[in-house]
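Entry for adenosine-5'-diphosphate complex. Fields follow.
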Amino acid sequence: MSDVAARATAGFRQRYGGEPAGRWAAPGRVNLIGEHTDYNDGFVLPFALPLRTVVAAAATDDGRWSVWSELDDEPVEFGPAEADEPGGVDGWAAYVAGVVWALRAAGHTVPGARLAIASDVPVGSGLSSSAAIEAAVLAALVELGGLDLPADRWPRLAQRAENDYVGAPTGIMDQSAVIRGRSGHALFLDCRTEAVEQIPFDLEAAGLAVLVVDSRAPHRHADGEYAARRKSCERAAETLGVAALRDVATGDLDAALARLDDAETRRRVRHVVTEDQRVLDTVELLRAGRIRDIGPLLTASHASMRDDFEITVPEIDTAVEAALAAGAYGARMTGGGFGGCVLALVDADAADAVAAAVTAAYADRGFAAPGTLTVLPAGGATRLD
Ligand code: ADP
Ligand code: MG
């Protein structure tokens, strides 16, 4: 049993006594490319991480839920009344109650349950520990209740839990990636149609890896800046007479920019339109098995986020520059910006050296040390045993 599954199991035994009926896991995710394209009806290309959240669980017959996480001391308990009212459970357990709520709102009979949660996914770093906990709990409850709910409907349900119960406005990317992710693949997601396609991304076979650097930069004004970017994109689409910026074709970009009289808006639009194209180009290269060749697209994505969308911070830019100088094929910030993580495509046997170079560059600049981890694309939510 993996260490994280053992921790969930030990937590279950200690809090509730007895044995769990099973263990269910869901991973974190990282977005390979396609940033701020989701709410513009565009394209993203995330993959699931080998780091997972595990839920050890058993059904009860009292129609109530008790959930413990190793992040907290005491279990949180709630019944149907709290689950049926967004806000009825708050704090971290809202992510669990939200899943119960979304299932019940969709007409399912959710069994009472005891759940114990352990996780290797860093919380609040942009690797989607939130979707991981949602998907692991969902997998557990669906099976414990024998619910008729095919996995292709899980992402929408988990997203509803986060949007409408927790109250965090996120798109469908995180939940899709952690539920549908497949080992050795990235998930190409069209955010307008929600069509998904598995794209070969077998880093291991190519002797490659992705280094993820947690910048540990404090999230400065992230919410307000996110809202401002979104608004700017929506206004630009309106001016251009399109439903969303996804509808501006790459070949029409210059003409579209000429119709916008504000330089800042032009930069925002240029980022979104070129970023959509970079996702499509990345998908083409990966389909052709040319993994190393996506490096320049990753780096161009970063430059676009830094110069046109203006969402990077000094720690993030430092990590990207240091990774490239140490031999990465490409590197970029991943996630919404103003902190979060950087990813770099590296030779597997160079990953440690690139990580050390980033850490040294941080020390030179006087930044608090970053977190680093080397990952390969892994599978999505699943029962463990
Ligand atoms: P991210 O998804 O990038 O990690 P979010 O802010 O979206 O960051 O979600 C983090 C929140 O999800 C935590 O603050 C906590 O409420 C909840 N959460 C995630 N993982 C766990 C866990 N293992 N145990 C309890 N709560 C968790
Ligand atoms: Mg999240």
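NOTE: The mean pLDDT is 97.
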